[in-house]
Design goal:
This protein is of the alpha+beta class. 47% of the residues lie in helices and 20% in strands.
Length: 430
């Protein structure tokens, strides 16, 4: 019995020890799991309270560096720009700025050009980098991408320079001609000649100012807010009437065909201005006793039926290098001829913006010495209007307002196709 009691007592003591050891091991495991790791020390534990939340909503690319120049926190935009690679700040000038700021606590800012990742064309990203101390150990780097702002500023600067040059020419001519009139006050024939030249320059100046206003309007206004079905034959008749005097003076025949019963959906004033510019260019760049044709047809397309309005001339044609730039503002294929005809170089830019804002496009076929064909492609009316109304009703039911950016683009049913009138000029390319 004494032996059995001793065995039982030993077993009880062993059980108690095992339980104590198990409890101690469990508590030690919990303490180890709750202990902050090295990675967490470099993220949430190191950053001051609220900084992580603030950095997540900033539009700028944000990078936080510790005292060893290791990246503690970086936004996704910083990785996208290539600022952070392998846990390190990859831009040496920014890294040096961070070290200087850590040393003296001063805020620094600099603008840099960085190579664009993923392209071999040598394009650069323009960025603005600002470095500031964040607490006693960390440094915050904020990087703003200025590439698009720089591009817009360059476009604005070029536009202002071009406008200034274009305005200066007729204004200077008017000033000189007025002095000539004053000096020739005793010569009626000279006065009459100079006055005629003044009238030409004043007309050119008026046209330039009006086209600048038109270009600004088509860029800023939404044509589909006041859209309506517009008859193509009325647009063609208005364009022909606009150029009838110039065409008659050069004995140019204007022929139209295929526009009956066709309608497009859009702003009548803008569409008339765009087609009128195409016809006016065709007349101005055509030699005397030639023919300008205006033809329209309906074209079936996967994205919806379109109306093509083609303006064909037998003029001087356009070279391949010029075709890439003819829709730029103030660009002229033949500057000397443009001065003679009073051209401003804005007509085709207006056509391009009108076509794009109506959900269409403008294309050109041309060969030097063989003439040119400009084709204006626009969504056909009918289904385009119905779709716009459906979009409006859907937004109203959903609590939204207005048309979305796709409203007014056509998914029409296919009407009977209208063929082009046969014209003695190059074929209109599809």
């Amino acid at each position: 019995m004494d032996v059995n009691a001793a065995v039982a007592a030993a077993a009880a003591i062993a059980g108690v020890l095992t339980g104590v050891i198990a409890v101690l091991a469990f508590r030690w495991s919990e303490r180890e799991q709750n202990r902050p790791t090295r990675s967490s020390l470099h993220t949430d534990a190191v950053l001051p309270p609220g900084v992580d939340t603030v950095l997540s909503v900033l539009r700028s690319s944000a990078v936080v560096l510790d005292e060893a120049d290791a990246v503690v926190k970086a936004s996704s935009a910083a990785y996208a720009l290539g600022l952070v690679r392998g846990g390190k700040l990859a831009v040496e000038p920014m890294l040096q700025m961070a070290r200087d700021t850590r040393r003296d606590g001063e805020i620094r800012q600099v603008e840099l050009d960085l190579p664009r990742r993923g392209t071999g064309r040598g394009e650069a990203l323009a960025v603005s980098a600002r470095v500031a101390p964040l607490g006693s150990r960390l440094v915050l780097l904020l990087v703003e991408d200025l590439t698009e702002a720089r591009r817009i500023e360059a476009v604005r600067r070029d536009f202002v320079a071009n406008v200034s040059h274009e305005l200066k020419t007729p204004v200077g001519a008017l000033s000189l001609l007025s002095e000539a009139v004053m000096d020739a006050s005793e010569d009626p024939e000279a006065v009459e000649r100079f006055a005629g030249r003044m009238q030409i320059e004043a007309t050119r100046l008026t046209s330039l100012v009006q086209e600048l206003i038109d270009l600004s309007r088509v860029q800023n206004d939404d044509p589909l807010e006041d859209a309506e079905p517009v008859r193509v034959d009325e647009l063609v008749a208005e364009a022909i009437d606009r150029c009838r005097h110039q065409a008659g003076a050069k004995q140019i025949t204007m022929a139209a065909g295929g526009a009956a019963d066709l309608r497009v959906w859009g702003n009548r004033g803008q569409l008339a201005a765009a087609l009128g510019n195409l016809v006016e260019n065709a007349v101005n760049y055509s030699p005397a006793r030639t023919r300008v044709g205006i033809a329209a047809r309906s074209v079936n397309a996967p994205g919806g039926d379109h109306i093509e309005i083609a303006v064909t001339d037998q003029g001087i044609g356009i070279s391949d290098k010029d075709k890439e730039r003819i829709f730029e503002r103030f660009y002229r294929v033949d500057p000397a001829r443009s001065r003679a005809t009073g051209g401003t170089g804005l007509g085709l830019a207006i056509v391009k913006h009108v076509a794009a804002s109506h959900g269409g496009e403008v294309a050109v076929w041309s060969a030097e010495g063989q003439g040119s064909t400009f084709t204006l492609r626009l969504p056909e009316a009918g289904a385009a209007r119905d779709r716009a109304h459906q979009q409006t009703a859907r937004h109203e039911r959903a609590g939204g307002a207005g048309l979305d950016e796709e409203a007014g683009r056509s998914t029409p049913t296919s009407p009977e196709s209208t063929a082009y009138e046969t014209l003695p000029a190059p074929e209109v390319l599809p």
